[in-house]
Amino acid sequence: MVGRIGLCYNPRDVTSDLEGVCGSGSWWPTFVVYGVRFVKLTESWVQDVIGDQIDGVELVALEQAGGRHMRVVRLYVDHPDGVTHDVCARISAVVGEALDQAEWSESPYTLEVSSPGLERPLRKPDHFRAQVGKKVYVKTYVPVAGRKVWRGSLLEVLDDAVVVREGEEEATIAFDQITQAHVIYEF
Description:
The protein is of the alpha+beta class. Helices cover about 20% and strands about 40% of the residues.
């Protein structure tokens, strides 16, 4: 949410200087919220913010944690030349400034920026395509072929699903059924 909230509460809805804003002429209590703009923190919004200032950076994943008193925003980013401390610092400055200008959170927040790591999250079809042939972890909302967790080789990426083989079993898992997925790094 962005901006300040103006809230009118007129318990009996009696004539007042708020007439026309809070008054409706009935005897029911009236609440009116005005002057509110909502900015939802999405991957596309953050990618746009980063892309406007820094070339070549891909937002791999956005995670939010914490509660209303202290929030944590985690950005996992990738760059063709690698993710250095300097890249993370620049992204942190750009995104932090944009969040503050948008007054995204009324409570304190922590912004964390890092590379996706060795067990990089798989969120988009292109992420999966880049990992075909590698070992992956895929967790689903509902059981697929009798289970919700698959750890195996990523065989294929279809338009709307992935094909994973674990042992002798193979499953086609629709993207909209995947709750979490990442590469399994093998030493």
